[in-house]
Design goal:
alpha+beta, Butyryl-CoA Dehydrogenase, subunit A, domain 3, Nuclear Transport Factor 2, Chain: A, about 15% strand, NTF2-like_dom_sf, RNA_pol_sigma_r3/r4-like
């Protein structure tokens, strides 16, 4: 990987964690790289780029707050999807900070709180570096971080420590979902498991989170019956570093992305993204799941 690719990768990693949106992150990355290209005498290009990306992302979050507060239904991040054929041992060590569950929790934080937490926990910046990026004192950054951690600590996600056990359980869960096996799904779900759906008012999605293994299992079996009428196929993928499922229609167009959080040998939380606006960066999106009258997103 050459230096430009490394810089782009770093910029996207910061911007995506800050924004939870692949599209918005790409816009920030483009602007930040342009500023880096135009700047003269930059000695530490990583530091320069991280600073610009973080500050641009703070501005985006401030302007997006009203839009997200009026969002229809539950809000989930735009997913990042990878094929699952890579070596488990080669996965990134910081996948917790890019998980759908963690990014969703970050929505509770103000822009500067989010910036300080991301830089500290995802990129291991020290307080002097963080202070320089956000334009605050080191002591103030310590206070901001402490406050941010308190705001999310109670619901901070837990993940299976052994990736292989996690993936094996996720594979059994996918098999049960493919069969519409309610009993099999119940056996794999935690008693207090949660299913969150994000349709954004444009696609058919559950109106509010479902809680409880039996209720979720019945809902998933119902979704599978509907998918059968569309010729849907469920494919295993990695979603934001965690096991997941990609559903495509008979023409190979994307219907939904499901993230699966596993801990203590059970599926703890499911994140279902069906809003077409949040899937277009992954390829052609099906119009089968759209609400009547909704327009499919442009690819």
């Amino acid at each position: 990987m050459d230096e430009n690719e490394q810089l782009r990768g770093l910029a996207f990693a910061v911007a995506y964690r800050m924004l939870g949106s692949a599209a918005e992150a790409e816009d920030v990355v483009q602007e930040a790289l342009l500023r880096l290209h135009q700047a003269a005498g930059v000695e530490n290009r990583d530091a320069f780029l991280t600073t610009v990306v973080t500050r641009l992302s703070i501005d985006v979050l401030r302007s997006a707050r009203v839009r997200r507060e009026t969002y229809v239904g539950a809000w989930l991040p735009e997913p990042l999807v990878e094929e699952t054929e890579r070596d488990v041992a080669g996965r990134v060590e910081d996948e917790e900070t890019i998980s759908l569950a963690f990014l969703t929790l970050l929505e509770r934080l103000g822009p500067e709180e989010r910036a300080v937490l991301v830089l500290r926990e995802a990129f291991d910046y020290d307080y002097r570096e963080i202070a320089r990026v956000v334009g605050r004192s080191e002591e103030n950054c310590r206070q901001i971080l402490s406050r941010a951690r308190r705001r999310i600590e109670a619901e901070r996600p837990r993940f299976e420590a052994d990736p292989r056990e996690r993936d094996e359980l996720a594979a059994r869960f996918l098999a049960a979902a493919r069969e519409g096996d309610v009993d099999g799904l119940v056996a794999l779900l935690a008693d207090d498991a949660v299913l969150v759906g994000d349709g954004g008012g444009k696609a058919r999605a559950i109106p509010r989170p479902l809680v409880g293994a039996a209720q979720i299992a019945r809902a998933l079996a119902g979704f599978r019956r509907i998918g059968d009428t569309w010729g849907a196929e469920l494919q295993p993928v990695l979603v934001n570093g965690q096991p997941g499922v990609r559903a495509v229609d008979a023409d190979g167009r994307l219907l939904s992305v499901l993230g699966i959080d596993v801990a203590d040998g059970r599926v703890q939380r499911l994140h279902s993204i069906v809003n077409p606006d949040k899937l277009t960066h992954l390829g052609p999106v099906s119009d089968r799941a759209l609400r009547p009258g909704a327009e499919p997103s442009a690819p």
